[in-house]
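Exercise 7.
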Amino acid sequence: MIDWILRFLKGILIGTGFILPGVSGGALAAVFGLYERIIDFIAHITKNFFKNVLFFIPVGLGALGGIFILSHPLAFFLENYEGEVLWGFIGCILGTLPALWKEAGKEGRCKRHYVILALTAVIGFLLLFGAEKYFEAQLPLNFVTWLFSGALIALGVLVPGMSPSNFLVYFGMYKPMVEAFKTLDFHVLLPILLGGAVCLFSLSSLVDMLLKKIYAGLFHFVFGIVIASTLMIIPFDYNYLSGGTVICVLALVAGVMLGLWMSRLEEKYK
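Solution. The predicted structure, written as tokens, is:
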């Protein structure tokens, strides 16, 4: 039961990672120890099918909860307490980094892997920063563009650290998407699900092959992307001279404690 609840909680956080700008659902899946198993399941869908389905039921239910149920309070808190919410997420990611570091070195590490990590973190941050600063576009809202948004969300699973919501914000599709989640608008949800499924099943085998051939290199790349994307969501424009700074610090500490706690449970029940 504890293991089931743990996977449900992880699913909630991963689900919010799909709709929270700056946060990657794939990165959260990686830091919570689920990324490799998700990719293996999708790439070899018939292998241990029922066992995997039972394993991922609480994750899926939690993700749906994170997306649909929490879309209302997330929209409210992000609009009114964005700084505090983001510091809580940053803390949670920081709390899980030790477990991700251990996972990245499971098959050994050398100087090359440190270089991969450093270059990925620096280049990833510069690319994300440049995209946020200079890239602006507005796409029409129709079946094709919602297919495209679903593919972007799926890429956020396959490429940990990539935040699909960031790109959807740039394209002017983020707020309509969240509104569709809140109202269960299936004219939007169905093409998103279809686009996501096509992307997942067409690219998962490639990612699975990379995990088998360059495990350490891929995970150090993931670690670098997690660092870059985490730096991107630091709310630099927050008024830290206000009383809300104390709440930000408390949210950060609470997030770190939650991340460490979930990592310990993951290690215990893995």
